[in-house]
Amino acid sequence: MWKQAIEDAVAKTQRNMSVHGMTFPHIDNDQRYAWGENNDWIEGFYTGMLWLCYRYTGDDAFKKAAMEQGSDYRRRLDNDIALEHHDIGFLYMPSAFAQWRLTGDESAKRLALDAADKLLGRWRPKGNYIQAWGPAGDEKNGGRIIIDCLMNLPLLYWASETTGEAKYKDIACIHAEQSLRYLVRGDDSSYHTFYFDQESGIPVGGGTHQGYHDGSTWTRGQAWGVYGFALSYRYTRDPRFLEASRRLARYFIAHLPKDHVAYWDFDAPIEAGTPRDSSASAITACGLLELIEHLEEGDAERAYFQEHARRMMESLVKHYATIGDETAEGLIRHGSYSVRTGNAPDSYMIWGDYYYLEALMRMEQGFAGFWYESE
């Protein structure tokens, strides 16, 4: 099953690459991608898919296309194009870091390190956090962190390992600790966002930008937490992060519908037409497979998490994947971007496609994507 699904994903990615050239997929409301420039937070996932396909096939066409895109990431960083946000890791780990990891290209390594410096510039020492969106002092977002940022921290952890400079890891650790303290609730659910007073650093309270309401649990946010805390554990070996990943994973699994593919928010009313978020289940499957790697063979939950990762992926492959549909640009249907604002509540999500392919390659080959250096 996994091999067939990977080969279908490779064929679709190859077709997109041939048809759309150097353009990147942007989210669209109409069961398709809107292809355009590298100017959002999501482009790294597409370049990462090219590198995953190259890793799987050895086909130099994927390598050539991904490396051509790599020059655009250098242009974007040097000109500071639409980078006033924390998603630098999402952009540069699956692109520049992946290029260096798979080819040994030193210029790509340098680009990834420069991107880490850019992310480091979002550190706000008064509150000990990495600001999610907007410039320093931004009236609306200056004191805001979001759970998604956990997935950008590997760029900083790796930069510390690579340069020997502790500042990258120190800041990543402190931000992860703040995320654990303020974004993870006592019942193992999570806030999407949390606010601090910009001047004093005093914590203000949790909220949401994407979820059903401020106190609800946005499923993709919970997914970022499952995977992000597991990656923080990989880099730090801090048992608090491993336990956080476990807690969020238990909650995610316990609140899934029968087919193991999440609705967009765990607290949203389930009615006819309530949007799913297939990307949340794809991300969580990757997170569970990462978490399992850090659990002892005799750990009672290891088999439990393994089984639920398998169920999520089986459901995605059998009921959500576009296998056999030669007109489809995306790999899995029924992802949601922002149901709250009506922005693509039911369409293809390029991060959903990326994590779906990553999870398949974890299942089939044990290859875990581009969030750390060694396999």
Automatic annotation (TrEMBL):
Coiled coil: none
Assigned protein family: Belongs to the glycosyl hydrolase 88 family.
Name of the protein described by the UniProt record: Glycoside hydrolase family 88 protein
Pfam families from the UniProt entry: Glyco_hydro_88
Keywords from the UniProt entry: Hydrolase
Molecular function in Gene Ontology: hydrolase activity
Native source organism of the sequence: Paenibacillus chungangensis
Gene3D superfamilies: 1.50.10.10
InterPro entries reported in the protein's UniProt record: 6-hairpin_glycosidase_sf (IPR008928), 6hp_glycosidase-like_sf (IPR012341), Glyco_hydro_88 (IPR010905), UG_Glycosaminoglycan_Hydrolase (IPR052369)
